[in-house]
Amino acid sequence: MNFASDNAAPIVPEILAAIERANEGFALAYGNDQWTRALERRMSEVFERDVAMFLVATGTAANALAVAHCSQPWSSVLCFAEAHLATDEAGAPEFYGGGLKLALLPGANGKLAPDTVKVALGKGRGVPHSVIPGVLSLSQSTELGTVYRTDQVRALAEVAHKGGLLVHLDGARLGNAIAALGCTPAEATWKAGVDVLSFGATKCGALEAEAVVFFDPKRAEGMPSRRKRAGQLISKQRFMAAQFDAFLHDGLWLKLARHSNAAAARLAKRLPEAGLRSVWPVEANEVFVVLPSTADARLRAAGATYGSWSSDFLPADTAAAHGDKLVRLVTSFATTDADLEKFVGIARET
Fold first, then answer.
1. Is 288 found in the same domain as 186?
2. Do 74 and 205 lie in a common domain?
3. Is the distance from CB of 272 to CB of 239 less than 8 angstroms?
4. Which of 12, 67, 145, 207 lies 20 to 30 Å from 257, alpha-carbon distance?
């Protein structure tokens, strides 16, 4: 019953096999290898246009370098107040951005609204006194397990572009969002107005494989040096490229995402059997629930793992008694029906 994080899941067998195949013989370092060149072509095929791609080792690096590259040290990045960029990067965006500022915005169900962004763009005294917004960052899927529809991304991007901002998408769980939407990668990103993407494979079954993808290669000028300066130019990059290649081959990434999404949906559907319900709509692979202290104790004693959570944006109808806990349950490609059955069974015991 491991619902702590999809990061805790093992490596997908197809990706592990790809790493082993890439381990045969010698290859030039720092991305000058056949696997990286092949992946650059595949990325362009997947997104239906020429892209500039830069592999990095972590999602933190992908997010921080992406927003730093698209902004100035005296500018700000608009994002949801509980975005991973704001709460889980240990100041990396500000560090790599030379002191840029994160402007934290409210949102319902983990999503920003165009009017909220418009208000943020209208604040401040202007140049040279105020920090000027330079990037709008969205998470897809969001930190609360919800998904922006493509029209919602497009509406936000239109506001951002009109205000002179670039749009960054934190796609650590992009596959889950696309699987939920039933759209194409192109429709979910650049066709909706996204300028730069942090594309994650690690949460979805890779060992360590993240990428910064620019949908206009001209915007990537200087990124090779920025990545190197950040310590993210990996010498044996072929192993990262091989992972991503296997991840994208024959739509494996979307197959894995559909499995984890379906597991989350089944879990949410069965929670009422234990007198529980999801706090936010379950649209990807994260389920948030308020657990009574007794159920929490039983589950943990039985070996269930999941994370405690907190949020300033709980729905108005969310009630929690003293000692109850808001927790996050994350499903993965490795989640089984037996995991769900056992969890619900223990949670409903009286």
1. no
2. yes
3. no
4. 67
The answer to whether residues 148 and 80 belong to one domain is: yes
Residue with tokens 């594309």: 199
The domain spanning residue 37 has which CATH number?
A: 3.40.640.10
The CATH number given to whatever domain includes residue 292 is 3.90.1150.10
Sign of torsion over alpha carbons 61, 64, 65, 67 = positive
174 near 200, Cβ under 8 Å? yes
Model pLDDT for residues 14-65, shown as the tens digit of each residue: 999 999 999 999 999 999 999 999 999 999 999 999 999 999 999 999 999 9
270's tokens: 């069965």
Based on the fold, state whether residues 291 and 157 are members of the same structural domain: no
Instruction: Using DSSP, state whether 299 is helix, strand or coil.
Output: helix
Q: Which class for 189: exposed (0-12), middle (13-18), buried (19 or more C-beta within 10 A)?
A: buried
- Return contacts of 314-317, CB within 8 angstroms, 24+ apart: 314/279, 315/279, 315/280
How many domains, in total, are found in the chain? 2
> Could you report the per-residue pLDDT of 109-142, keeping only the tens digit for each?
999 999 999 999 988 767 787 789 999 999 999 9
One domain, residues 246 and 266: no
Q: 143 with 84, same domain?
A: yes
Burial degree of 32 (CB within 10 A; 0-12, 13-18, 19+): exposed
Burial of 90 (0-12, 13-18, 19+ CB in 10 A): exposed
User: How large is the C-alpha radius of gyration of the chain?
Assistant: 20
Count H helices, E strands: the chain? 14, 10
